[in-house]
């Protein structure tokens, strides 16, 4: 059931500020067909004016608008979901909690989720967006249960069905977000990142190898490991057989392995098999790997297989925690490291010169408001020549770099731990910096790189149980 939207030509008629609503409860029953629209067009101007005013007034009596339509009404009020066309041609939708957001007609048509427009298996758009009229408007709208139904005023009279929860989650004018306390496959749970320092040594986030490798019980073991990676950026696994094969199988539970100029699944000792200080006995300061890649690796897995000497303890620092300290204690340095851009390189192997497609900052933020830090990208050893700085930026950059480095090296922020055969660790390379102490003797480590997007895909599907976009 639906309301007729009364039009003269292609415009919705309004009397003053009266609105013609589409409600779950129908006031003027009709079938959402093109024929009903055609009949509406034949109405005289006076008839349209009268019916529009009557329908709007009746609709308002059924579910009156709140004084603040963009915000929710008290939970004790009975709210009827509704949709109407605004004066500017946008479609306003009122949700069960009373909040209202507005959508352009072309946006709604482009995001139709019917099987003809959105493939139910591949989750890919099938509609030809460029063929949609830029000024497309609804002919008939109705709220049917938890769905908004729109019959479009086009030659094919296409009918779109869109979930109200999906619309609210993806709203933009204003952005409302997912329904409060609602379980929906459209939005990811917002887990709080737990910032940590050296004191985390007393309670390292750890799961068991047997649990991670067991695909039964709805992937509970793998989900627990992914949860630790997401929350802490650092996740240990105990009980791993001390072999490359078992370690590789562990990494592949998260995603396929990313191959680089260091190989696919790698093992390294201090033999300089590659031109990188990781293949020496030198100590390594806290850093992230692959700053010279356009797309730095997302995760890296480490497993110490053997060590018959001294030293070689592993170092981990929560870059998000240190960045938060920097932001609070020296906002100027924080801004400098968020805006000054430079390049990096990997050139130690013969016939290898890897450089990113564009310069980058140490602290990288998304473009939201407020902006959010999503990536630390720092390896002072791999930093290339500073050529893009303005004269006035040079002194401030080096000052900010020193403040940042001093915080990284503050013993209160450094987690030092001696890895052992049987304990592997997965590190979020976009958040946690790693290093090691110098060592002697034979030290054999294996591990792998994993792409960020593939890792996040597993978080969404295994941990969050998301199935649609």
Q: Strands of the biggest beta sheet: in what spatial order?
A: 11-12-20-15-22-13
Poorly predicted ranges: 1-77
Distance between the termini: 29 Å
Structural class: alpha+beta
Q: For the report, how would you describe the main beta sheet?
A: 6 strands, mixed
Strand tally is 22
Describe this structure in words.
The chain has 11 helices and 22 strands. The strands form 6 sheets. Strands 11-12-20-15-22-13 form a 6-stranded mixed β-sheet. Strands 1-8-9-10 form a 4-stranded antiparallel β-sheet. A 4-stranded antiparallel β-sheet has the order 4-5-6-7. Residues 1-77 have low confidence and may be disordered. It starts with a strand and ends in a 6-residue tail after the last helix. Helix content is 25%, strand content 21%. With 469 residues, the protein is α+β, with helices and mostly antiparallel strands. It is globular.
What secondary-structure arrangement, pairings included, does this model have?
Blueprint (H helix, E strand, L loop, with lengths): L2 E2 L2 E2 L2 E2 L8 E3 L10 H8 L3 H18 L19 E4 L5 E4 L5 E4 L1 H6 L27 E7 L2 E6 L6 E5 H6 L36 E3 H5 L2 H17 L1 E5 L5 H8 L14 E3 L15 E4 L11 E9 L6 E5 H11 L1 H9 L23 E3 L7 E4 L14 H18 L6 E3 L5 E6 L3 E5 L6 E8 L1 H12 L6
Parallel strand pairs: 11-12
Antiparallel strand pairs: 1-8, 2-3, 4-5, 5-6, 6-7, 8-9, 9-10, 12-20, 13-22, 14-21, 15-20, 15-22, 16-19, 16-21, 17-18
Helix pairs in contact: 6-11, 8-9, 8-10, 9-10
């Amino acid at each position: 059931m639906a309301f007729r939207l009364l039009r003269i030509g292609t415009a919705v008629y309004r009397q003053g500020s009266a609105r013609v609503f589409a409600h779950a409860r129908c006031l003027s029953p009709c079938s959402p067909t093109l024929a009903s629209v055609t009949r509406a067009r034949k109405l005289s101007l006076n008839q349209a004016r009268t019916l529009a005013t009557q329908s709007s007034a009746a609709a308002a009596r059924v579910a009156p608008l709140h004084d603040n339509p963009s915000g929710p009404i008290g939970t004790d009020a009975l709210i009827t979901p509704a949709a109407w066309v605004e004066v500017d041609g946008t479609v306003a939708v009122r949700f069960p909690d009373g909040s209202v957001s507005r959508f352009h007609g072309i946006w709604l048509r482009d995001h139709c989720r019917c099987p003809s427009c959105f493939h139910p298996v591949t989750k890919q758009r099938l509609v030809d967006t460029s063929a949609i009229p830029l000024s497309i408007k609804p002919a008939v709208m109705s709220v049917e249960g938890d769905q908004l139904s729109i019959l479009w005023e086009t030659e094919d009279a296409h009918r779109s069905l869109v979930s109200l929860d999906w619309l609210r989650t993806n709203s933009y004018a204003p952005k409302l977000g997912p329904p409060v306390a609602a379980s929906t496959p459209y939005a990811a749970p917002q887990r709080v990142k737990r910032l940590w320092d050296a004191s985390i040594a007393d309670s390292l986030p750890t799961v068991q190898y047997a649990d991670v490798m067991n695909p039964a019980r709805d992937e509970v073991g793998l989900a627990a490991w992914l949860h630790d990676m997401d929350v802490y950026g650092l996740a240990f696994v105990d009980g791993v057989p001390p072999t490359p094969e078992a370690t590789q199988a562990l990494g592949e539970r998260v995603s396929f392995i990313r191959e680089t100029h260091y190989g696919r699944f790698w093992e390294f000792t201090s033999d300089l098999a590659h031109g990188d200080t990781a293949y020496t006995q030198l100590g390594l300061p806290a850093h992230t790997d692959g700053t010279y890649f356009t797309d730095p690796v997302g995760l890296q897995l480490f497993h110490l297989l053997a060590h018959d000497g001294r030293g070689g303890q592993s170092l981990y620092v929560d870059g998000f925690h240190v960045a938060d300290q920097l932001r609070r204690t020296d906002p100027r340095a924080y801004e400098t490291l968020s805006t000054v851009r430079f390049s990096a390189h990997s050139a130690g192997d013969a016939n290898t010169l890897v450089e990113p497609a564009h310069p980058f900052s140490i602290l990288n933020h998304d473009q939201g408001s407020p902006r959010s830090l999503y990536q630390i990208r720092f390896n002072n050893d791999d930093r290339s020549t500073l050529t893009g700085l303005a004269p006035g930026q040079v002194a401030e950059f080096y000052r900010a770099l020193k403040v940042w480095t001093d915080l990284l090296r503050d013993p209160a922020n450094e987690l030092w731990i001696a890895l052992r055969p049987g304990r592997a660790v997965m590190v979020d390379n976009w958040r946690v910096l790693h290093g090691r102490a110098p060592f002697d003797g034979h030290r054999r480590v294996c591990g792998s790189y994993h792409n960020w997007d593939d890792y996040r895909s597993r978080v969404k599907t295994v941990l969050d149980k998301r199935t649609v976009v």
